[in-house]
């Protein structure tokens, strides 16, 4: 399938080219299988949401992509090479993993300048990325005085320093105020529109629904879903109708076999397999009095929780065993 270009930018867009590729990736920590035979690809021009409950293996996967942890087996590559084989890593992939990992006595400018010098990046890029993240006014301040939101912006400036075609963000919205959240969402969208591949982890579906074009869901280190966000939303929305009234039992007996039904309180039914118009018409034809007829969409958060329930229960069991020791 040929994908339409989403915007002009310095990177190839819509070619379907894979920028980050994970193949059979596995990581064991002693008895813990943190990442289990994971395979997925991150494409340019898209924000790919990397979603999973706490402990699912997201950070471990990102750390292996970035060469910070060695895989037990399998491979993770950026632009076709493992991170360790990148001639200029900051020019291949920019990452925001831990916004706190900055010397507090250094100014923002000198922090970025040291990174640039170590990676063969020009001094001019430092000023450019400080402006991009809105820190140019505080460039000469020590980072120890920065708020979490400012440290997060500095971490993103560092990620952008090498103007890389791939960006990796681990839970970048954690702890941010609403303004910071809106800003990072906008930045991720902008980076993708420029043609970069953006991989961003989160444990909240609601965040991803607003930001990501593509979704990779993991649980217990394993792949659960790898799908376009639109396909995911379409597949999981608009299938329930709540019906209320004094004669819902009569309506229940009139329903065709395609309808599935469960009670909701004494006078309500939740019907799947028929839309509100079909149900309303059926009730009218049968002379059934209705007091409510409401299409309901399960929240994406609910769908995500259903998808990953087994993984979460597994984690809870482990937790219980550990605490009962
Ligand atoms: N250095 C380590 N040593 C031992 N076990 C580890 C180590 N790092 C991670 N783990 C375990 O690997 C599993 C996956 O952890 P990971 O941090 O990758 O998950 P996550 O999806 O990023 O979770 P969260 O959303 O809580 O950050 C967990 O069971 C965790 O306890």
UniProtKB/TrEMBL annotation:
Protein family (similarity comment): Belongs to the ABC transporter superfamily.
GO molecular function: ATP binding
InterPro entries, per the entry: AAA+_ATPase, ABC_transporter-like_ATP-bd, ABC_transporter-like_CS, P-loop_NTPase
Record key words, sorted: ATP-binding, Nucleotide-binding, Transport
Protein name per Swiss-Prot or TrEMBL: ABC transporter ATP-binding protein
Residue intervals of the ABC transporter domain: 20-245
SMART domains, per database record: AAA (SM00382)
Pfam family, one: ABC_tran
């Amino acid at each position: 399938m040929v994908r339409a270009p989403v915007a002009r930018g310095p990177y190839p867009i819509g070619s379907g080219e894979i920028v980050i590729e994970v193949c059979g990736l596995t990581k064991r920590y002693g008895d813990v299988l943190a990442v289990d035979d994971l395979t997925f690809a991150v494409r340019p021009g898209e924000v790919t949401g990397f979603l999973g409950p706490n402990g699912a293996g997201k950070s471990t996967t990102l750390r292996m992509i970035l060469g910070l942890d060695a895989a037990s087996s399998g491979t993770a590559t950026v632009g076709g090479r493992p991170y360790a084989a990148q001639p200029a890593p900051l020019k291949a992939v920019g990452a925001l993993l831990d916004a706190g990992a900055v010397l507090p006595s250094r100014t923002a400018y000198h922090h970025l300048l040291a990174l640039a010098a170590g990676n063969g990046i020009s001094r001019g890029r430092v000023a450019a990325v400080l402006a991009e993240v809105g820190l140019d006014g505080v460039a000469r301040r020590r980072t120890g005085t920065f708020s979490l939101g400012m440290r997060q912006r500095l971490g993103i400036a560092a990620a952008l320093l090498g103007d890389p075609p791939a960006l990796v963000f681990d839970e970048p919205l954690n702890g941010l105020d609403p303004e910071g959240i809106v800003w990072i969402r906008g930045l991720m969208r902008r980076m993708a529109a420029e043609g970069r591949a953006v991989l961003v982890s989160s444990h909240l579906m609601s965040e991803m629904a607003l930001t990501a074009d593509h979704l990779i869901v993991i649980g217990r280190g394993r792949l659960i879903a790898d799908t376009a966000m639109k396909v995911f939303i379409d597949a999981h929305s608009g299938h329930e109708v709540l019906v209320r009234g004094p004669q819902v039992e009569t309506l229940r007996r009139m329903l065709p076999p395609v309808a599935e039904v469960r009670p909701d309180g004494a006078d309500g039914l939740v019907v799947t397999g028929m839309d509100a118009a079909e149900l309303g018409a059926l009730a009218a034809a049968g002379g059934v009095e209705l007091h409510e007829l409401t299409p309901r969409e399960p929240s994406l958060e609910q769908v995500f929780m259903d998808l990953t329930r087994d993984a979460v229960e597994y984690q809870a069991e482990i937790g219980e065993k550990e605490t009962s020791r």
